[in-house]
UniProtKB/TrEMBL annotation:
SUPFAM superfamilies: SGNH hydrolase. InterPro entries: RhgT-like (IPR037459), SGNH_hydro (IPR013830), SGNH_hydro_sf (IPR036514). Keywords: Hydrolase. This is Rhamnogalacturonan acetylesterase. It comes from the Bacteria. GO terms for molecular function: hydrolase activity, acting on ester bonds. Belongs to the 'GDSL' lipolytic enzyme family.
Amino acid sequence: MKLRTTISLFSIIALISCNTPKPKDVSIYIAGDSTAQGYDTTRTVMRGWAQMLPKFLDEHVTVVNKAKAGRSTKSFIAEDRWQGIIDSIKPDDYVIIQFGHNDASSKPERHASYPDYKNNLLKMISEAQAKQANPILATSIVMRTFNGRSLVDDRLLGYPAIMRQLADSLNIPLIDTYVKTRDMIIMMGDEPSKELYMWIPAGVDSIRPNGSQDDTHLQTPGAMAVAEIVAKEIKKQNLKNIADHVVIR
């Protein structure tokens, strides 16, 4: 009787195992600029947040980081970097689209007017959806600019607002990195928040041997903090096929 019960129990367990769907392997592509791109860890202490994102995801999610320094929606498309993502992306994959810093630039090869910025984002969204992939819009990270005790960042102008409005009107997931990093920096304050950005003395970084006081680009603590913000938003918004694979330690 005991043997029969044991066999029946094993049969039930085997049946449940057979009927349990296996996790779907998914890729998250990153279309963005220098704040997200990956850096050579042997040459610089600078890090992009997407470089750190895999630390918050399990083995079923692969981050394909195509972000590149100096790129705006305009230049990312013009250089066929966006086309490279579209050529590779598969149904059910995701693409996080984060631009704004360089769209606001006065350099003609980078600058995108508000209407052009919106149209470029619409192109990316529609082409990703045509491949049955899932676009996620992300506002740019805040530029750490203090005036006394107040954080003042007007260099991103209306680009974060356009990103929010577009996500809302199209019912597309939005990660409001700008607001969340702004709040984080405000709570930390001027001096403590420098450790997140490229505020480094001379002799620390081979690319910037004289040191830097950079309020835009991140060191490891900053990149980790932003990556965690992104991962938590994926979890909070319960995004299909990836939310269950977020790992927050």
